[in-house]
Structure formats: structure tokens, C-alpha cells
Amino acid sequence: MSGAIRVLLADDEAMIRAGVRAILGAGDGIEVVAEAADGREAVDLARAHHPDVALLDIRMPRLDGLAAGEEIVRTLPGTAVAMLTTFSEDAYVARALGGGATGFLLKSGDPHELIAGVRAVAGGAAFLSPKVARHVIDGLGARRIGREAAARTRVSALTPREREVLGLVGAGLSNPEIAARLHLVEGTVKAYVSAVLDRLGVKNRVQAAIVAYEAGLVTDDEARPAPGAAR
């Protein structure tokens, strides 16, 4: 990505916005171009400024961050959405990812994690806070077993090369890294990744990485905290 990463920051607490703005300001090439105090204002400012990333709190007045994120994804395809919150419950994570968000960050996380997450989603990648990633991947008891069986069924429809690419996506490798690992050109890898997302019926690399985990294509030792890179 050329130029500074332009960020819209939305949180109903001014002190939180100030703190996040200061953290992002410490990261080279990141600029907060607009701030919103509620979800409706966030949508309006996103339309006005067309930021690279909309960083949204979940619990906000007028329109919550989840609904605001869905509207931004639907109407501004050039803006990536990442949630920044203190909450990591299943329902929040599932709705955020299902609505097209490609980042889910916790306010309690390390500042470097916040900067890395903004950079990742701005570049077309996906980023989950490590705590959120573990929460999503682990699941709960029988639900996890059922998801694993379903994931293996979905993955069985892929070609051997597509499964290999999916496993590397799940391990957090970028397209250039996958290309180097498999001795392919980057354009070929991008085509494989697009085909994998389409065949699995998922919207982004976070969702593909979850399928890879559940299907047993990647281990914890192989994985990075932030799966994904540009599609």
C-alpha cells in the first residue's frame, strides 16, 4: 500500500479515542483522518472520507459498531472494517466476521498488536487478536466436533494444491510467502487463494483460516497470531 494508512476511529468514549489515536500515531504511516462518537456518525464519516480502515467499537449509541461495520462493508468496498472492543463473546465475533469485518482486536491487547492489526487489514489481510483467535478456534465441546467434521467435508472438495494453499493461509502466511514456499509466482498464489475462498463459500481469509484449523490443515506450532494477507 502506498501512502499513509487512513483510519476512521469510532468509540463513544473520548478518552479511549485519544488513547487509540496516540497509539496509532506512534506507528509509521498511519493517520487517523476522522473520529466518530457513535455508529451512525461512523458510517457518515466513512462515506465522507473513504478511509482505508474503519476501526469500530462494538457498543456505541444510535447504531452499534457491528451494524455500522456491516453497512460500511456493504456500501464502501474499499474500506476494511476492524472491531476494537473489550468484548470477545461468540456472538460478537461471529456476527463481526459474518458481516465482513476482517479484524477483531481487543482494547486490552498490546499496542503493537493494534498497529499490526490496522496494517494487516489495510493491506487486504485479516487479523484476529490472539485471544480472540484461540476463542474462535477452540469452540465449545460438541459444537467444535461438529464444526471439525463439517470443515473436513468442505476441504475434501478442494484439490491437493488448494488444500496446501489453504493450510498456509491458516498458518498466517502472506501471498508472497506462500509463493516462495511452494515455488510459484505470486499471481498464481492469488488465483489459488481466490478459488479456495470461492469454493469454501467464505468471505475472507479469517474465515478460511478457521476452516483450515478445524479441518486439521494447520497446527498451533505453525500458526501465527494473525492469519492472512491480501486476497
From TrEMBL:
PROSITE patterns associated with the record: HTH_LUXR_1, HTH_LUXR_2, RESPONSE_REGULATORY
Residue stretches making up the Response regulatory domain: 6-122
Keyword Transcription among UniProt keywords: yes
GO biological process annotation, one example: regulation of DNA-templated transcription
InterPro entries: CheY-like_superfamily, NreC/VraR/RcsB-like_REC, Sig_transdc_resp-reg_C-effctor, Sig_transdc_resp-reg_receiver, Tscrpt_reg_LuxR_C, WalR-like
Entry's Gene Ontology molecular function annotations: DNA binding
Recorded coiled-coil stretches: none
Keywords for this protein: DNA-binding, Phosphoprotein, Transcription, Transcription regulation
One Pfam assignment: GerE
Domain HTH luxR-type as annotated: residue spans: 151-216
Family matches, as CDD domains: LuxR_C_like (cd06170), REC_NarL-like (cd17535)
Positions of modified residues (4-aspartylphosphate): 57
Keyword DNA damage set for record: no
UniProt cross-references to PANTHER family, sorted A to Z: TRANSCRIPTIONAL REGULATORY PROTEIN NARL-RELATED, TWO-COMPONENT RESPONSE REGULATOR
Protein's name according to its UniProt entry: DNA-binding response regulator
